């Protein structure tokens, strides 16, 4: 009786516990480079260096993947935005932080482009609109701790427009002009900076 030939040992499965997060990061890279219209499963898989099936395994469709990627982006940006104000104790410091945020917009091109891609996509996708509304609430809450809610809404709108202008402009806005716009949006100099909550 012939002995059975030894069966080939199964190939070990590649352990890749961070694959889903890598796919999300790759999706954000593709969104920043190609925009929402140019984002595909294949481009994301290639950027993440994973099989195409891995992308569709983790996310039912491109819409779900896009929403998950933008959610990851908003969480990261909200935390980074809040961290900018650590140690801010005076109006002067606040103005400088906000001026830096606008002036450094082009240097943070990927992040800024993603923010505007999200807002454009949200015009047609109610689920993404809920995400942009949450982001706005969180950003304004951070600002309101220093300025009060009325000025926070005004400054938030100014920041979005100024950052977009900085991205599109071929001539950088002088820092002093940016600083003056932000200072004016904060209200009169005699407004009490201590109106922020210290509880």
TrEMBL record:
SUPFAM superfamilies: Homeodomain-like (SSF46689), Tetracyclin repressor-like, C-terminal domain (SSF48498). GO terms for molecular function: DNA-binding transcription factor activity; transcription cis-regulatory region binding. InterPro entries: Homeodomain-like_sf (IPR009057), HTH-type_TetR-like_transc_reg (IPR050109), HTH_TetR (IPR001647), Tet_transcr_reg_TetR-rel_C_sf (IPR036271), TetR_C_31 (IPR041583). Keywords: DNA-binding. Residues 40-59 bind DNA. Coiled coil: none annotated. It comes from the Bacteria. Residues 17-77 form the HTH tetR-type domain. This is Transcriptional regulator, TetR family. It comes from Actinacidiphila yanglinensis.
């Amino acid at each position: 009786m012939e002995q059975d030939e030894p069966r080939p040992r199964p190939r070990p499965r590649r352990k890749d516990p961070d694959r889903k997060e890598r796919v999300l990061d790759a999706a954000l890279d593709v969104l920043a480079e190609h925009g929402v219209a140019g984002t595909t499963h294949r481009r994301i898989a290639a950027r993440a260096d994973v099989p195409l099936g891995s992308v569709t395994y983790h996310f039912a469709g491109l819409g779900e993947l896009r929403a998950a990627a933008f959610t990851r982006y908003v969480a990261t940006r909200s935390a980074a935005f809040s961290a900018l104000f650590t140690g801010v104790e005076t109006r002067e410091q606040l103005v400088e932080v906000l001026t830096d945020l606008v002036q450094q917009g082009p240097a943070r091109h990927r992040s800024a482009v993603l923010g505007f891609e999200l807002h454009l996509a949200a015009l047609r996708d109610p689920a993404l609109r809920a995400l942009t509304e949450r982001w706005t609430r969180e950003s304004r809450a951070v600002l309101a701790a220093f300025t009060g809610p009325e000025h926070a809404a005004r400054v938030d709108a100014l920041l979005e427009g100024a950052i977009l202008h900085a991205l599109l402009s071929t001539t950088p806005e002088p820092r002093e002009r940016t600083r003056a716009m932000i200072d004016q949006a904060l209200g009169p100099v005699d407004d009490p900076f201590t109106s922020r909550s210290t509880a």
